[in-house]
Design brief:
Blueprint: H1 3-49, H2 53-58, H3 63-87, H4 89-115, H5 122-138, H6 144-166, H7 172-187
Helix pairs in contact: 1-3, 1-4, 1-5, 1-6, 4-5, 6-7
Length: 188
Amino acid sequence: MDIQELEQQHRIIDMMLSGHSKLRDDNQRLALGVNLLLLCSSVILSTLVFIDPTILRFFKVDPQVSQIAVGVCSTLVFLISLIELRVDWKEKAERHNQACEILGRLKAECRELLKSTSQPDPQRVADQCKMCAQTLSTLPKIPEEKFHSLKAYHQAKKELSKLIDIYPGVPVWLLRIVLLFHGIKKLL
């Protein structure tokens, strides 16, 4: 194994790290959103159950209609909680987080070998490449249907980082727009 193989492993690890980070963040957002939705709707439903019928009549709401609405909303809350249990975005986020930690360590080890001032020991490079390949095979797989969008995300992240280095005082949102227009210009 030579240094080019290690550079290839480093690029793959870097891209996988971006992908797993994005998947972790997306799953954490989904889990948080569903948890907050369930919490808020449960509090509202619990409150509605104890509303006095005279208050409902004051607002010109038929008590039977409100009872049906509470029942329908309760069923929806129950269905959302079943979906949350089945999808389990928290667990997915945790698996991607573990992958990020492993990939971060691998990336640092590869970078250490690649950035060394002296020529690295070929056996050490071969051992690192073998360890990378073995470790990558144990990580959670990136879903095939998300691979291309995650690769595009990774490439855009690298380009945005370069723009931030060149223009550190410019807001990131503006640099994202510049990057978008530059990409469309290149495409056309």
